[in-house]
Amino acid sequence: MSDTDTIDAVLDRHHRNGTRLMQILRETQEQLGWLSPATLTIIAKAVAWPRAMVEGTADFYSFFHTRPLGRYRVLWSDNITDRMLGNTDLMESMCKKLWLEPGRVSEDGLVSVDTTSCTGMCDQGPAVLVNYRPITRMTPARVGEMVGLIRSETPVAKWPVEWFAVDDNIRRKDILLDHGLVAGQALAAALELGAEKMLAEIKAARLRGRGGAGFGTGLKWEACRNAEGHGAHPAHYVVCNADEGEPGTFKDRVLLTSYADLVFEGMSIAGLVVGAKKGLLYLRGEYHYLLDPLESALATRRQAGLLGANILGTSFEFDIEIHLGAGAYICGEESALIESLEGKPGRPRIRPPFPVTHGYLDQPTTVNNVETLAASCLIAAHGSEWYARHGTEKSTGSKLLSVSGDCERPGIYEYPYGVTVRQVLEDCGAGFGKCDCQAVQISGPSGLCLTAAEFDRRIAFEDIPTAGAFMVFDESRDMFEVARNFAHFFAHESCGFCTPCRVGTTLVRNLMDKIANRHGSPYDIDELFKLHRLMQGASHCGLGNSACNPIFDTLNKFRPAYERRLMSLDYEPAFDLDAALSQARQMTGRDDAAAHFSAHLPNEAEA
Amino acid sequence: MNDTFQLDGEDIPFAPGQTIMQAATAHGVYIPHLCWHPDFSAHGSCKLCTVKVNGRFGSSCITQAQPGLEVENRSMELDEKRRTLLQMLFVEGNHFCPSCEKSGNCRLQATAYELNMMSPHFDMFYPNRPVDASHPDVLLDFNRCIMCSLCVAASRDADGKNVFYMGGRGLLGRRVHISSESGHLGDTDFAVTDRAASICPVGVILPKRKGFAVPIGQRKYDLAPISEHVAEDAS
Amino acid sequence: MNAPMNVTTNANPAPAKKLRVATASLAGCFGCHMSILDIDERLLTLLDLIEFDRTPLTDIKRCGPCDLGIIEGGLCNAENVHVLREFRQNCKILVALGACAINGGLPAQRNHLDLRDVLEEVYQTEYLVSHGGIPNDPELPLPLNKVHPIHEVVKVDYFLPGCPPPADAIWKFLTDLLAGRTPALGHGLLHYD
Fold this sequence. Notes:
The structure holds three protein chains of three kinds.
Chain A: H1 3-13, H2 21-32, H3 37-47, H4 51-58, E1 72-77, H5 80-84, H6 87-97, E2 111-116, E3 128-130, E4 133-135, H7 140-151, E5 170-172, H8 185-193, H9 195-204, H10 217-226, E6 237-242, H11 251-258, H12 260-274, E7 278-283, H13 291-303, E8 319-324, H14 334-341, E9 365-369, H15 370-382, H16 384-388, E10 398-405, E11 411-416, H17 421-428, E12 437-442, E13 448-451, E14 469-474, H18 479-493, H19 499-516, H20 522-538, H21 542-546, H22 549-557, H23 559-563, H24 582-588
Parallel strand pairs in A: 1-2, 5-11, 6-7, 6-9, 7-8, 10-14
Antiparallel strand pairs in A: 1-3, 3-4, 10-11, 12-13, 12-14
Helix pairs in contact in A: 1-2, 1-3, 3-4, 6-7, 8-12, 8-15, 9-10, 9-12, 11-12, 12-15, 18-19, 18-22, 19-20, 20-22
Chain B: E1 4-7, E2 10-13, H1 20-26, E3 50-53, E4 56-59, E5 70-72, H2 76-92, H3 107-114, E6 131-132, E7 138-141, H4 150-158, E8 164-167, H5 170-173, E9 175-178, E10 205-207, H6 220-223, H7 230-233
Parallel strand pairs in B: 1-5
Antiparallel strand pairs in B: 1-2, 3-4, 3-5, 6-7, 7-10, 8-9
Chain C: E1 19-25, H1 31-37, H2 42-49, E2 50-52, E3 66-72, E4 75-77, H3 78-90, E5 91-97, H4 99-103, H5 115-125, E6 143-148, E7 158-160, H6 167-178
Parallel strand pairs in C: 1-2, 1-3, 3-5, 5-7
Antiparallel strand pairs in C: 4-6
């Protein structure tokens, strides 16, 4: 098949519809290896979009490539938990064995090795993606074998199956993970209640969004339900946010692996309530491997009459489509996610209007977290009264925590809301006398860094709201390096739309590197505070507003970790002055005293 | 038009649907801005127009005016933040005013004068950005781009051509794409008479064969500060 | 500013100790220094208030303890860095004067090129100057990999932009400083071109 035929087939499959651009680009790239200028021109013509717009999407996402790449693409997950498990050394040894610089394609076009943002395998790292398939628990031996397989050009499909094993690691179950429902049970109960009563139940249960912000799910559904569809194709939509990108979070991975029916059923219930016929599940690109199992789960539900027309013999019609992302943390923000669903770069929209009135294709849309939707099944099946008996007054129900880092049993822990941090630490094997835990980062880099004095605080909206990440750091960990890893993460993931975040996240990253490279002074710490004050408030969305949180937290709680790296009380340049003469020394062959800067000695002038 | 809100203590009347920026501009009050233009829908990206609305930060170009709002505009705190945002824009690109044809007519430069920006403050990035001379009548020098997207809006909404589109991600990736396979302006239907050819607030999009017609020192913002040009934006 | 300065004020007409000032041009074109001279007959007034240490006008080779240091030009080579550090160490107040000191200016136009390529192009490829190869005399200061504005290497207290800053701006700046006011240029005097 020629390239043009290949592209045509992909385009046909997606009805030459520009809003399907993300899927068109991904499937084309899967077959052609990369997205060449000619390919983008063909696609732009077919979907009748300006070419620059297609290119704009193609070069926004980390997993799309507008330059040729190696036939083997190895991406090392670079969350702090992967670092703590030794990914830096492993990647370095892999590069050495392959005679490769990180980020570069080998001369023969065989392989490239690079880092990527957290892939959601923190409980079983260090993790890599090879041609976008996850491999967990990397070891030096595995690196050696992998290099052999790449050199011999063994197809990834023929690599050892056990490498691709992703464990659920469920350590503690509560009402959600122990739900005991059969497929269709919750939906049948919801249909029995009808949309209005179901909505009333959700509100009475006081269900709140599990993505971290905690907005009332009932209010959201109600606003969406009450909003009028508009234009030529009025409709309502349900979107399931499975773009689980917050480093340290992996609960949705487990829900989608082993509780997919519950998630789909929650989407259907939402569809019933808001009056939608279509649901879209936005799956992060890193979870590509879940696409096939999820599709077959959908097929099973269709066969069982749980999706499609006349669901369970009623007039209710609803179906679900899965959209795959392509490596962009920002798409976890609901309006950026909608932009991405429409085939565009994931740029958070100006709000108001909010998605509940003007969302996907400008129609009323409810965007809900995977866990929120799953939880709605419990309310449908058992009623609001039963549900509200769990958890606390303001935080009903349970919460899944993704526990990783320095503990004996990383994995998924489900607790009723209100559990203390200390209790979680005890249960995961990081409690007193176990690992001398010095800090817990809750809800990922944009969340909160807690020290031992705060371990009696509670996981609940009224105290510590969280999307579920729970990263544990023992006494041996350097909290400055933790914050620096997060600073790199935000600089990489800033969408670039607004000035404070686009430039600020990189300035913060550079200042953290300056301090790490022993060029820092108290001046640089003042600069970090100043950037924090600007970015928090002036940024367009939550990413920029919270990007300095980990710096601010650690500067307040672990200031000595910064101070012991400072080189001087006076201002210092960010770069090594002597190294700044390296190229001239090389070109002139000079190595005399005047060809060097004697560090910090005064009055060496007058050569 | 009986409703008013307060801007730095002054009553500003507004019509329903107007943003704080629109109402202030119509009333002759200057709120610093770069990506906002009265003829196009608000973009909300430069954040220069950040004000405090009832004590909370917000962009005045996308915040609806409401009766009784108390809006803080030219306070020390806000101007300090704006100065930092300008410094970010100056270090992010390559802004060498002495050799730029737009100097004196440049909104970035004039806004920096208005806010007393004396230095770029941060370390310079000196990015490697392209210059495109492929078009017979127009030169593109992306060294000066501040990602305001006004060329995108003008080409799309006024010219109906979609020659430009903002793409890429992050500090180094973000850039204006040109709608041709070569990426060259010369391979598009762009014309020097397009609205997009004259919309650039800085010196990226420049007509060829026209330079230094007005000497430096006698140009628009040399004669009066940008805050005294508000009337041009009110219409 | 932390440095207490002796200035003449109306309240205290007794002749105070003169302000000691040093100036230097690093990777610049001396245009800013020409602009200093451009303050014309006001120089005489100024000389009642200040005295010069190291400057291209005095032929003093090393900067001694000064109240005020004024730097024109950015950092292009090792010697520029040495002079800048000498100034920072000796001057209570350090001022970046003009576009090149502030953002690298014209010399920084080489920053998107690799220095090795620049040297090769100039001394090995270019036909008129290629005979001797790349100069390696220890007397010559080595060029830095990249050109830097001076605030990237030392703490700078004040910036006076312009290419060059107009004489009136320099006058305003200095008189403000001498009177103990935070220098403020305002419209017309503050410009970057």
